[in-house]
Amino acid sequence: MTDHTGRAKRPSLVVLTGAGISRESGIPTFRDADGLWAQVDLEDVATPEAFARDPERVLDFYNARRRVLLSSDIAPNAAHVALARLEESWPGDFLLITQNIDDLHERAGSKRVLHMHGELLKARCTLCEEVHPWPKDITLADTCPACGRGPMRPHVVWFGEIPLHMEEITQALQACDIFVSIGTSGTVWPAAGFVAEVAHRPHTRRVELNLEPSEQNALFTEHHHGPATRIVPAFVDALLADVRE
Ligand code: BJW
Q1: Is the dihedral of CA 235, 238, 244, 245 positive or negative?
Q2: pTM of the prediction?
Q3: Across all residues in the chain, what is the average pLDDT?
């Protein structure tokens, strides 16, 4: 249903977030100069082949990141909080898709969150594939609490693996009126292609909020560049004012 200007009355909103939204909370991104891929080779830690070759190295990488995430100095920032407020007040359908494996959106109060690259605080059985809450280190000696047999792996999506929740994501993208991308370089697929998927419908509003123009910059209809803690709350205020008009 649309109003007299042709705008949807209860617009459907999809938000995609990446590592940039959590950087000001103290969690490093991947591809910035101080990012994780400047310290370790992704081929050594973020592929199924790496896990098969040297599981201890891969477990160490994720165990260290899990300990950082659970340390007392990590907390959601103003951008996470603004998105939770947006979901709470939004009059239409709302979906938050995150590429991040941290739980800062949930800690800020977001409810409808899909972690397409998995979750750091969960572990998955390599045999029965059951997923379990796992707020501690994963070791080679750990076995699956469900089947009692399988060694455990981080519940994350490595290169060459299929991201999670793709059916639900595709449906939401097909129905959305507004697509907002926050803090992602737009270099990792399929997330990098979401803006192109919604751009097939020319009237979809496509907003990029990022420190700098991303790889997909040209496909957005609107750009706001700067740190997430500044530009996300300001954008959320403006968007909510707009739908209340
Ligand atoms: C700020 C900020 C601040 C900083 N405020 N902003 C050739 C061509 C095309 C595709 C491929 C290809 N070869 C292989 C592929 C596919 C491959 C891929 O994309 N490779 C590319 C590298 C080319 N993709 C896959 O393999 C995926 N699977 C797949 O495609 O399966 C096939 C399939 C799909 C769909 C249906 C059916 C089948 C799996 C990808 C898995 C990605 N995994 C990782 C690691 C695991 C989780 C973890 O360890 O945390 O996920 S890689 C890493 O990159 C992580 C991230 O989620 C992901 C995206 O990174 P993100 O979030 O964009 O971070 P950065 O660092 O890149 O960018 C941060 C941005 O923030 C920057 O722009 C900054 O400027 C900005 N920023 N500070 C605002 N304060």
Answers
A1: negative
A2: 0.97
A3: 96
Calculate how far, in angstroms, residue 219's C-alpha sits from the geometric centre of ligand 1. Answer: 18
Catalytic residue among 105, 117, 200, 225: 117
**Pick from 77, 99, 58, 109: nearest CA to 192:** 99
Q: Is the CB of 32 under 6 A from ligand 1?
A: yes
* Ligand 1 atom nearest to 35, measured from its CA: 66
Token digits of residue 187? 């270099």
The reply to whether 224 belongs to the active site is no
The DSSP result for 83-145, as a single string, is HHHHHHH-SS-EEEEE---S-HHHHHT--SEEETTEEEEEEEETTT--EEE--S---TT-B-T
pLDDT band at 197 (very low <50, low <70, confident <90, very high): very high
């572990």: which residue's tokens? 123
